[in-house]
Structures are given as structure tokens and as C-alpha cells.
């Protein structure tokens, strides 16, 4: 799902300029995630099938020998990317910058809200998810919340990764969109499967009346960045379905899958 978008373009705003501690996760969930929209359902199914079919194997350099670690970058108030990785790893790191979002994630780790079971149910048509008896308990056991900045991610440390509606939703600057994508893919071990999603042509958004920046991207922009730093890249445009447009002037979301390549940054 995406944030509340504004039309038009204002002055340039860097990631460091935005007051992320004022992001209201409860309002964000109420606006976006109480039900599963058709577009989110499509994205979930793409990611579910990609991870299930990826031939995922244990990383060689886990925290303990043979341990698999995943990362969800910029989790915010959206648990469904993390849930999509839950059956495949031993440890799930949720990286989030905003203080209010971190507090919300702490509460969700204890017992996530019922609406997230609707998203989980979209995953259970595939065996790895269907075999999970209690997703709440498994999330509680595996999730580790890290209050940190995505631009400070260490390289080559994760075996699986997601970053949903983040890279284009933190700054108006193209360089920071590219830098966020490179930082995310660079944090994954070479060959690690990953998925990203994006809001197409967002020019900014607000959460409970607080404005936040965005950089407008399209399918080609996502492909351009990922093909430089990843392999087996697949990018799909996801038009809005029967639920209709989220915001005036918006027509689609974007979902991408691939594997971390040999280079962490562009040449």
C-alpha cells in the first residue's frame, strides 16, 4: 500500500529534512491496511511466488553457522513484506528510522493486529506459508526491530530482503532514491532474493496531516536502478483494480523482484 499523496511538486526536500518521528503509524494503517486491496493482493502474490520458487538456501555467513537472516528496510507501519519472508528465515530484521513507527512495531511484535491475518491468508496458498501454524508466534520469535537509517546499512549481511514503498517516499531527490535502492541491494549477500515495491509517480504524501516528501518514479526508473546492481530482475506495473485509485491522478503501483548482484553500487 502507499502513503497519502499530494499532487504537484514543491521545493526539494532531502530525507534528512523530513520529521520522520511525526509519522503516525495508527493513522497510516487505518487509511491503508485494514483490508487487502486488489493491488496489494497482486503484489503479495508476486512476492509469495517468487520467494517460494527461488530455491532459497541457507546463507554461508549467517550470525550462526547455517542461520538465515532477512531484512525488511523501512518497515514503517506495513507488516506484509515481513510476513512474506517469515517461513524462509531464522531471523527477521526490521529496519525503521521513525521513533513512532519503532514503538508501533514493538507492540505489533508482541501480538500483531487481526488485520494482518488478512494479508497472511493471501500467502497461505503456497506450502511454506501453509505449514506455519501460528504466524503471530513465529513473528514474535523471529522479528528483531532495529531503529536505524537505511543509508547506514552494512554490506552483504542478509540472505533475503524486502523494501516496500520506501525508496521513492523519503526524498524529492533522484539521487536519494537511487542511493536507497543501492543501499538496500548492497546489504544483501550476492544472489540473495529480494522484492521491492513502489508508488508510481508520487509527488509527496501526508500522514494525519503531516507532509512527507516523495520522488516520482515509473517502471523504467526502477528497472534502470535494479539492473545495475541485481540479476534476474523482473519489474511489473500494477494498475489499480476494482478498489479504484488511491489518490487523484494515480494509476498504478510497481513491484520488482530479483537477486543481489556482484556490485553493491553503480559504477
Automatic annotation (TrEMBL):
Say yes or no: keyword Kinase present: no
Q: Which domain of life is it from?
A: Bacteria
Entry keyword Methyltransferase:
yes
- Organism, as annotated: Cryptosporangium aurantiacum
GO molecular function term, any single one: methyltransferase activity
What's an example Gene Ontology biological process for this entry? methylation
Task: List, alphabetically, the InterPro entries matched.
Answer: NNMT_TEMT_trans (IPR000940), SAM-dependent_MTases_sf (IPR029063)
Question: Which keywords does this Swiss-Prot/TrEMBL entry list?
Answer: Methyltransferase, S-adenosyl-L-methionine, Transferase
Q: What is this protein called?
A: NNMT/PNMT/TEMT family protein
Amino acid at each position: 500500500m502507499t502513503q497519502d499523496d499530494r499532487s504537484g511538486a514543491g521545493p526539494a526536500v532531502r530525507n534528512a529534512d523530513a520529521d520522520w518521528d511525526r509519522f503516525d503509524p495508527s493513522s497510516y494503517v487505518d487509511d491503508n491496511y485494514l483490508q487487502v486491496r486488489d493491488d496489494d493482493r497482486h503484489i503479495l502474490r508476486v512476492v509469495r511466488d517468487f520467494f517460494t520458487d527461488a530455491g532459497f538456501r541457507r546463507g554461508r555467513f549467517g550470525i550462526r553457522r547455517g542461520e538465515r537472516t532477512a531484512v525488511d528496510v523501512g518497515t514503517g507501519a506495513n507488516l506484509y513484506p515481513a510476513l512474506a519472508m517469515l517461513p524462509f528465515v531464522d531471523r527477521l530484521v526490521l529496519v525503521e528510522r521513525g521513533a513512532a513507527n519503532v514503538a508501533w512495531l514493538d507492540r505489533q511484535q508482541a501480538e500483531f493486529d487481526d488485520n494482518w491475518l488478512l494479508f497472511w491468508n493471501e500467502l497461505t496458498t503456497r506450502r511454506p506459508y501453509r505449514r506455519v501454524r501460528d504466524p503471530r508466534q513465529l513473528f514474535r520469535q523471529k522479528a528483531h526491530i532495529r531503529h536505524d537509517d537505511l543509508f547506514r546499512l552494512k554490506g552483504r549481511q542478509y540472505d533475503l530482503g524486502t523494501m516496500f514503498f520506501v525508496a521513492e517516499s523519503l526524498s524529492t531527490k533522484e539521487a536519494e532514491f537511487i542511493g536507497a535502492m543501492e543501499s538496500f541491494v548492497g546489504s544483501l549477500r550476492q544472489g540473495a532474493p529480494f522484492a521491492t515495491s513502489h508508488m508510481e509517480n508520487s509527488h509527496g504524501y501526508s500522514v494525519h496531516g503531516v507532509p512527507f516528501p516523495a520522488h516520482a518514479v515509473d517502471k523504467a526508473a526502477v528497472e534502470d536502478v535494479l539492473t545495475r546492481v541485481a540479476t534476474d530482475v523482473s519489474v511489473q506495473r500494477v494498475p489499480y483494480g476494482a478498489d479504484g485509485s488511491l489518490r487523484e491522478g494515480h494509476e498504478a503501483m510497481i513491484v520488482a523482484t530479483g537477486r543481489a548482484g556482484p556490485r553493491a553500487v553503480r559504477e
